[in-house]
Amino acid sequence: MTEYEVYLSGEIHSNWREDIINATESKNLPISFTGPVTDHDASDNIGVDATGPEEKNFWKDHKAAKINSIRIKNGIESANIVIIKFGEKYRQWNAAFDAGYAAALGKSYIVIHPEDFTHALKEVDAQAMAVARDEAAVIKILEYLTLK
Fold it and tell me: Nearest-CA neighbor of 51 among 61, 38, 63?
């Protein structure tokens, strides 16, 4: 059985990552997971925490984004599969960027989003290997990919 390295990208305001990880672990699927830092404050503040304060929010965000991109780029580059969730509460522009990066690298990616996002994400969906409405569908796909 092939072992997959899966990068989990997208919204950070729900437990969707844990749901997928727990389900695959309970089924003993040969999958390991990586992802971004999901502690919102830690992610937003790493630039100033590491290199000092900034007067303008633009530079604070710029520093954090560059440091976060080290982890994100490496995670996507080393993954066999990227799973990207677009949640309903906030619009995850960074998730769309991650989808584009995965597509540019030729990575297989799966998108999760509500049906009413279909038009807005049509280009993201067009490059995806699958578009799912929920984590249960993703778990079924991962089970299928790991069949003997």
Answer: 63
Q: Is the pLDDT of residue 1 over 70?
A: no
Q: Looking at this protein, which amino acid is placed at residue 54? A: E
Q: Tokens 């695959």 appear where?
A: 24
What CATH number should be reported for the domain holding residue 131?
3.40.50.2300
Question: Based on the structure, what is the number of domains in the chain?
Answer: 1
Q: Is 96 helix (H, G, I), strand (E, B) or coil?
A: helix
Task: Return d(Cα 118, Cα 31) in angstroms, integer.
Answer: 28
Does residue 48 fall inside a structural domain?
A: no
Question: How would residue 143 be classed by pLDDT, with cut points 50, 70 and 90?
Answer: very high
AA letter at 53: P
Would 138 be classed as within a structural domain?
Answer: yes
Q: pLDDT for 105-115, tens place per residue?
A: 999 999 999 99
Q: Using the 8-state DSSP alphabet, how is residue 120 labeled?
A: T
